[in-house]
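Researcher: Here's a chain I'd like modeled. Treat it as a single chain, no partners, no ligands.
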Amino acid sequence: MKYNFVTDKRIQIDGFVWHPQDILERLSSPELPGEEFWRCMAYALYVMKDDAEYVAALNDVKKIRTKFSFPQQEATTPQNELSVAPLRMMRPEGYTNNLPHKRKSSDKKISNAPKTLQYYVSGHKGMLREQQKRVDIIFKKFSEWGWIGSKTTSYDFNSLFTGEDRHCNIDWKKNTTVLSVLLSRMLNYKNRHEENLIVAQTGQSASSMVREQFNLTPNFDQYRLTEDDKFKIMLTLFILDVQNPLPLRYGGSDNDYDVSDAAFKEVLTGRLRITKGI
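Model: Modeled as a single isolated chain. Structure tokens:
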């Protein structure tokens, strides 16, 4: 379902800032659990309540999901009354709850879902926004290079960097050697301050991620990598490392970045010394 919304408004859910179209894609996914669907749907309606066109689009998605994904809720679940959003999603920005919350042992669920890369830094909004910008650039570059297919949504790709166990449904198109080496170098990368790019998780390795997250067979034979493959792996790490400045477009503003391969090649040529670990 594709709409052309002319809006500067963004929707903040679960620590991420989403474009309205991305929220529609997320809600349209049949793999989004019912509880998450209703929570996100209610909050999106609350945030975008003044945009009649977008509210109509949300209701279209709701009708389709209700009919094909969980029809039993149509007549029996009060969550279908979309004006009633869950309390935690309806609280105004800046609201704080002073009551202590004790996690019950029953709240903890054992998941068999594969691990993702723990890249995002929680609790630091400025850093989180910068990291989200970098991941968005990587998503666009991977799509441009043909490394991932059109079935991969920006939401699924973004979730690969959250550190939460889940199937990200990444439609990997490039050979498994590039994937294996890329994941290995991401997991072992340190920036110039000797800080890890990815937070280490117990039992996580490049091999296990290739098998469990991508359902492929790992291959680390680097002789299979072309010079172009090596450059693009290096470029991926360079972009994800927030210590590295992004190239600005000539004559543009401070936030007008030139993310073409040619611009990055020019930057990397003079900065190879800071790509230690790549």
